[in-house]
Structure formats: C-alpha cells, structure tokens
C-alpha cells in the first residue's frame, strides 16, 4: 500500500477515537458498499470553538488515518476555521496518500462538514460557505489511468 | 525483526530452495536456446521433456499434452480465447461461473465484447456450482465449459468430476482453472474428463512467471502467442528453461508429498477454523466446510473492513490477505463473497488465511490470539458496531 | 571436454552471474506477491518500480511507459493484436516488412486471417527497408507501422528514425521489435519517434521468460492477457519478481557498457568478416556491411547446407546457428535470406555468428581456421559443387 | 536435433563419399529448394551385383547419414536385393531419425532407385518392382502435428 509513516502512525495510534455524549453536532458519511463510513462528533462551545472532537470509522488504513488527522486539525479551531480544513490539508498533514486512497481524505473533509451542518441545523445557524454535505463522495472518483 | 508468519500461500509461495538449486545451472552454465542445433543447447530440449513428463504423470496426461506458458493468467486467456476462435463454426456460447478468478472472468467479459455469449453460473452459499445448473445452461451452440477446480478466495472445491461428465456427455470441451488446486488436491484428467487445465508454478513452491496449460490431444486450439515453432508450434517464445526446470522440480517434490501435506494442512486448518469461530463473535466461515482446499480458511468478521485488519496483522508480523491479491487496491468488495450472498459491508471484512506445510500449530495460536485483540480493537472504532450495539440494547 | 566457444548470442545469452545473484533473494526470501497489502510483499512493488525506472531511463522513456511481459514474442503479439483492436474504428491496415521475426510475421498472418490488411514491405539486397516505401504504403486506413530495429539473422539495422518521422508525420502508430537491438545499440524513443518497442531480457544477459513492451503514454491499447490489475491493469498475472529484477539488473549492467561493448564487438566482427571473405571462396556476407549490429556476422557458403556446417562446427566445440534458432528443424530456408534475394540453395547454406563481449580474437581465429576446413570438406561431398566444377572446366 | 549415435557416426565418418567414373548407373534426387540433394553412383557387374557405390549429398546431418548408410546397405548386394532396401531399413540401421528428418531416409531410398533406374535404362533392362523414381519426395511429407 505504500502508506507514509505519518499515515501509519495515525492508523496505529488513532487520535480522538470514540463518541461524545450529547454532541453539538454529529455527521456520518460514506457507505458500507464502498467500504468506508466515517462518523464525527463535535463538541462546540458558545464562541463557536470546537472544544472536543471524536470519530468512529469503518474503513481501510487511510480512512482511519484521515479521520484521525482531520479531528486533530479541527480541534480547538473555530467553526469558520474548521470549514477551511480541506482534504488537501489533511493529505498534506499526513505526507500524502496513495492515489487510490485520495477519496478517504475527501470523505474526512465531508464528515467534518456533515457534523458542522448538523450543528448548524440543531442550533438554527447559517454557516457561511457550508453546503449540505453529500453523504457519499465516491461519485467524484477518477480512475487512476486517465488515458485509457 | 520480530515475528514473521507467512499465511498467504494462496497469493504465492516461497520458492523451495531445492527448486532454486535445480534452476541455477540453467542460467549461467546450460544457458543454450533449446531450439539450437549444437549439442550444448539441444540437451536442454531433453531437460524440458523430462519436466513435461513429470507434470504429465502427475495429472494422468501424456507428455505431449503439456504446454508451458508464463503462468496461470496466460493459460486461462489461451484456453478461452483460442477455444472461441477454433470452434467458431460450432458455436459462440461458453459457460463459466460467477466466482472465477479475474483471469477467467475478465477474459470472458472481453469475449462478450467480441460477441461471444457467456453464461455466468450462480453458486450456492458455500460457493458450490450445481452440476445440474451446468447441464441446464448448455445450448446447441455451447462450445466450452470453464469451471475452476478450487476457488482462490474461499477455497471451495467444485464438483469437477460431475461437471466433466456432463461436458463429455454433451460433446463440449471442459476447461478448469486449477491454479489453486494443482498439487494441493489429486487431479486425474482422465477420471475427471478434463480437456484443458491451467496451472501456475508459484502456487506450489515453484518460481513465478511459469505455468502450463494441459491440452488434451485432439483439442484443436492453436496459438495464443504466435511466432516461433516452440511448444509443438502452439506457444512461441524462447523457452524459459530455468523456469521450466523450476516448475518440474517443484511438481516432483510436491507430488511426492501431496497426501501427507494435505492431511497435515487440513488438520491445522480445521483447528484454526474451530478456534476462530468459537472465540471471535459475529464471525462466519466462507466457503464449504468440507469440500475445501486443505490450506485455505476464509472468515468474515462483521463491522470490520478488511484492509485495516490486514495492516494490523502485518504489524504483528502476520501475512494474510483479504479477497484476492490482485484486487487489493481496488475499492470493490470481492465478487466471490458477493456471489455467495454476503452483503457488501460483510464482504468488505473478510480475511483469507492460507497455510503451507511449514505452518505450525504455534503459528496458528499466535494468529488467533492476535486476531481476537485486533478484531475487538477495530470494532471499538467502528460506527457500524456502535449502531449494532445500540440496536441490541433497544431490543 | 575440449574447446567451447559460444557464438550464438543472438539466439540467447548467458545470464550474467551478477544478474543471478540479484535475483536469488526474490525466490526464497522476498518471495511475496507485490500486490499484497503487508509490508513484506508490498516492498516488492518498490523493487519492481526501480527496475522499470532503469529500463525507462535507458530508452529516454517514462517509468510508467514500461510494461513487463514474458518475453519478446508476447510483446510483439501484444503490440500488434491490441493495436488492431484498439484502433479498429480508425482503420484496418498495418505495414510491416518481409524480414520480421516470426513473432511479428506469424502474428500479422494471423491478423490477416481476421480480415486485417497487411503490407509486407520488400527490403533491398542488404536487408534495408526504404523509408519512402513505408511512406508509399500508407493508406487512410493505416493504423500501425511495425518495422524491426535490427534483423535477428543478418544483423541489418533499419532506418528507424526516418520511419519514425514518417509515422509521426502521418499520425500513425510506430512499433519496433527491438529484441536484437536493445542494449546493443543506443535507442531513444523520443528522438526516434517510437510509440511501442519490444524487448526480451535473455538477449542482453538477463534471464529467459521476461521482457517488456514500451507503450508511449497516450497509446490506447488495452490488455492482451486479461485478469488481475497488475501492470496498471494492462497485463495480468502475478509479477515475475525475480525475472523483473534480473532484467533490470541486466539492463543496468548492459547500459553502462553499451558503447565500449559495441566498439569491441564490432571490431572483432569486422576482423571475422574480413578473414572469412578473403580466405573462403564462393562466400558472401549477408546484411549491410555498415548498418549492422555490432555482434552479428552472417555468411552464405555456396554448395553447402547449413545444418551440416553447424554440426561439424559443434564437433569442434563451436556454437553457431543457421537462420534463426526458432526455425531450425523446419525445412524451409530463411525467409530473411530469400527476401534479400538469395536463391534457395544459397539460402540453405548460411551461417550466423553472433559475438559477445567475452569473445576473443583467438576464438575468431579458431573459428575461421576450422570453418575453412569444414567448408572444404562439405563441398567435397556436395553434388552441387561437383556440378559447378564440371561446368567451370568446360568453360 | 537429437540424432542417434549411429547417425552422428555416419555423419562424421560418412562411408562411400565420392564419384565413380563411368558408373553403371547414377541417380540424383531432391532439390536445392528443399535443402537436400542426393546423388548415388553404382558400379554393377554382369551378375547384377553391386560392386561399388559412392554418393554425394547436399543436405543436413540426416541426409548425409542416410546416404552413407544406404550405400553401405546396398554394397555387395544384387540389384534385386538392393531394391528391397527400404527407407525403414535405413532408419532402423541408424537407430532411428527425428520425425522431421524421416524424409531424408525416403530420399536415400529414392536415390538408390534412381541410380538403379538409370542402370536399367542404360542396359535396356526391366527390373521387376522398380518404378520410375520421383525426383522429389517432399510432396509426401506430413506435418508433425497431425491433429491440428
Ligand atoms: C527480432 C526478434 N523478435 C522477437 C524474438 C522473440 O523473443 P523471445 O524468444 O524472447 O520471445 C526474437 C528472439 O527470439 C528476436 O530475435
Ligand atoms: C484461481 C486462479 N487462477 C489464475 C490465477 C493467475 O495465476 P498467475 O498470477 O500465476 O498468472 C490465480 C492466481 O493469481 C488463481 O488463484
């Protein structure tokens, strides 16, 4: 699979695994058919700062590692800042992913967005720049071999 | 380095050091091209013949019915494509199954794109093909039945004899992909009415990049690789002499130990299966409990995705696989597990353990002990398991 | 054992002991299937990549343009058959030559039987293809030009650059069978406008049973061997890791010595040619005197049949060939020698001597000295020589 | 090529190579196109006994060996006996030939017949059982692989 050391570290020692009771927002994306499901729990305070974040993931090594890294990246950030955490940022923080695994980082981004959306809905907020997340990002995927 | 336990012998095997030793002279000493006139090289023709004979004997075939190829995939491609070509006037329909290796499945799909009709037979929940379904699928224009001898993922051994008899009765050629079965279970092409059979050396402690296709005398297929007059004009290319010697030597060694190996491995396999099913909850065995390759065990652990499992086992020094090696890296769950009726999320969580004669009971105990911990750990992380537990509570 | 002088390096070469050494760990230690997930095996994917890079660099190609095959014949079959399939909407005509290796020629004939139009270009008396004849043969429906880089029998090097330029100008794919040329003459696929190129490891001191096809990025051909997702989904089959490492190592070694080897061998070759032409009457050199592989010499001795010559040389410990190795045993004279215009009885009496860097001047002297005696002896026995002498007398 | 020791012996030390001046009969068969030509010279005495025989052959190892063996087998025999020397007898005496080389033994038989025919014509004889020889036996050949 040729995962980077960072990916392996986050896979072996995933940060923030677990659940949050009565979360400010929770989002689940992906589907079992495609082999990955990510669920993110957010605990957000009144200043819109993410105080805590937890995840559960059913998926491959990259799915676990991107979930772990995504939670690390949004923790302590404001909602607005968290929105800026893209799949690219996650990938970079992990020193890259194999091409077939790029979709995992998209899924992680989407999982954060889904949790934020849930938070916004529950709190009747409108978060600038946040769209209703797709639950499944697989439709975006590309074949590795573009030319044939 | 810590532990190292290789339990992926269905993906490939270690080349036996005795095999390598037998090959060595053919690289740097007897390196001649067997088609050459001078005695130095022509002697290699004899050597080749001897290997062919070893293999022919192991199958109850004749020496000149064994054709060397570059491996199981080439043999499978050859058998299907050349049959379709040679028997085009007879018909354009072939019968195969949904659980074939991709070397058959993708070749069949390719042939479909060329206008060939293909029936892909269903299998039951244990992966068994029903011989009566084969019979029912036969049409006047059927020219080939290709059913694998044993499945590479779930280890199920198909009713080859019954299918062979039906093929013979109906005057239809019968090919079997025996890449996983050859040298792991006894095979007699006469008794089983097999017309063509694919095998690959690296699955029985021979080298990679060499295999063979058995073609019964009288089967009219021609070349798949055109060119020189090698292999009785049916397969071009300078003969891979070291590879051929490696395969022959491996076949000789494996044939001599076939029965005792099968006995040893199947006992160990059963021990493994019993422990796993007893000690790890929400687990199922895939494939037939009895009609099964001696060295194969395949499990599905609910709420778990296969790759994570493999990596964690790897971290413990244990080499195993999920689905077949060729498809890892792809996102689709195994077509075999879907064919036996597993839902997608369970099909994603399968583990294939394939033993060798070098595997010990200690290895198996270590595997099971680690597996228990790892499965528990991954389930802790799984949103599917979380949902399941919540539902259970509500009940 | 007495003398042993191997002068049939065009048929196959000795595998370099350094190559064997590099291969060895991949049989019994790092034997994992590169497609597997666990690190033990996945490391072989890296190893493969390194070999691919060595080869790519040697051709001025990109790493992902190199696809491993089982040898030159498979590469040739793949290039032709898959092109015809992939470009069927564009046309159904291919251009090749009368002096190709059978791996091309028989494949082209097979394609003809499937309705493909094939132009087989003539060559001149030195075996050279005229680029203008290539241009003239192009039709709107031409999809492929396949011209060998250097001929395996007579050693003539074709005007590949000119042909490549014509192909490019006309937007037609250009394939070259470089099995004899790769690692014997410098090749740059960019400079020569080559879209596909076949090579085989055993022709440059690598192992048998492994080769590659270079496929320029953008060429749309698909698989010839269908199945697993190996080789970027274009060539199925468990990777022959030892073979790949062997080929990569051989390429690395050969590339480093290419220029000096070519210089050394061509000087020795010229010495051989000069002596033979001067000292043995009624003899001709086949193939171009200058545009010629550094290690190839090919002679025709009138009134003589090739096999007798080979056997007598063999009795003196000298390994050589007549025509190509693949066709020996057949009764037909070489299609290449007929194509350059030799009459049948002269075409039967040809001798190919192919040197290596290990060949010495002493070897050549020994060869020529024996050759003189043997040719004289066979002519003594030849009814054709008898008739010739009688006619000479009458004059 | 897998020639027997006998074949190799007759190839390396061919018996009866040469010409006979003013032969009783001479026959040449085969053609250069196919790669073998055999010429047999016979010296036959008044009792129809073959006193001497010589050959010249353009051809492969088997062609030389079969010529040599055939001359050995007919030497000292009567014309009638010589007619009974079949290609089978030549092959057997050589401990067999590779399948692709069987035609050489046919050619040797034919060369003897051609020389005998020449002898018969020159001496105005009719030899029982001798037919006008074909000069080229290659038309009889079969592919090794009969079944496809
Ligand atoms: C020019 C040429 N093309 C193709 C081949 C076939 O290569 P291989 O025998 O490795 O399949 C050869 C050698 O046999 C050759 O010389
Ligand atoms: C059942 C089956 N068929 C075909 C193959 C292909 O064999 P190879 O990879 O040697 O080409 C394999 C293994 O990869 C297999 O398990």
TrEMBL record, chains A, D:
Gene that this sequence comes from: nifU
The protein's name is Fe-S cluster assembly scaffold protein NifU
> What InterPro entries has UniProt attached to this entry?
NIF_FeS_clus_asmbl_NifU-like, NIF_FeS_clus_asmbl_NifU_N
Q: Which domain of life is it from?
A: Bacteria
Q: Which Pfam families match?
A: NifU_N (PF01592)
Q: Which residues form the signal peptide?
A: none
The UniProt entry, under PANTHER family, shows:
IRON-SULFUR CLUSTER ASSEMBLY ENZYME NIFU HOMOLOG
Residue stretches making up the NIF system FeS cluster assembly NifU N-terminal domain: 2-124
TrEMBL record, chains B, C:
According to its UniProt record, this protein's enzyme class is transferase
Task: List residues binding pyridoxal 5'-phosphate.
Answer: 72-73, 152, 180, 200-202, 238
Q: Which cofactor does it need?
A: pyridoxal 5'-phosphate
Among InterPro entries, the record links this protein to:
Aminotrans_V_dom, Aminotrans_V_PyrdxlP_BS, Cys_deSase_IscS, Cys_deSase_NifS_bac/arc, Cysteine_dSase, PyrdxlP-dep_Trfase, PyrdxlP-dep_Trfase_major, PyrdxlP-dep_Trfase_small
Query: What keywords is this UniProt entry annotated with?
Result: 2Fe-2S, Cytoplasm, Iron, Iron-sulfur, Metal-binding, Pyridoxal phosphate, Transferase
Superkingdom per UniProt = Bacteria
Organism classification: Bacteria, Bacillati, Bacillota, Clostridia, Lachnospirales
Question: Aminotransferase class V domain location, by residue?
Answer: 5-367
Name of the featured protein:
Cysteine desulfurase IscS
